Amino acid sequence: MNICVFLSAADLDDRYTRPAREFARLLGKGGHTLVWGGSDVGLMKVVADGVQEAGGRLLGVSVDFLAAKARPGADEMVIARDLGERKRLLLEKADAVVIMVGGTGTLDEATEILELKKHGRTDMPVVLLNTAGFYDGLKEQFRRMETEGFLPRPLADLVFFAEEPVGALAYLEESRGVV
Prior knowledge:
Elements: E1 2-6, H1 14-29, E2 33-36, H2 42-53, E3 57-63, E4 76-80, H3 83-92, E5 96-99, H4 104-118, E6 126-129, H5 136-147, H6 155-158, E7 160-162, H7 165-175
Parallel strand pairs: 1-2, 1-5, 2-3, 3-4, 5-6, 6-7
């Protein structure tokens, strides 16, 4: 599978890097390809390192103004003109999406894929990996949107919430019939 991971490029502490590294190892060991923002810094580097060390492939989609931070040695690296094109390319190349901890860019990418799913424009599985409870507030907000009628589809049809990396990958593999 080509698994797109939306995540931070910031340097983060162990409570975030340890589970990200674990997910990356599982992804690589499973023979999957990481589709990611292409950066060789912060949490993006941690995940790319883990996937590559475990034998997985790296397919990066960087953006013109961040090309200097793109990872050398990726199996494939595409440079998009702008952030909109980058998001489009990341999703085009993916079979599934995992949302890890991140800032406004990650949140933007997360809402984009959920909006596409909401309108039936994609059926790829989406997992929100809620490392160290990072997305507890967002999870609560999504539930409120569902309860109060803001979502035309059940929340469970849009996103799967995983607390641990192994559950995230198991859900994706089961959703795509990969054993």
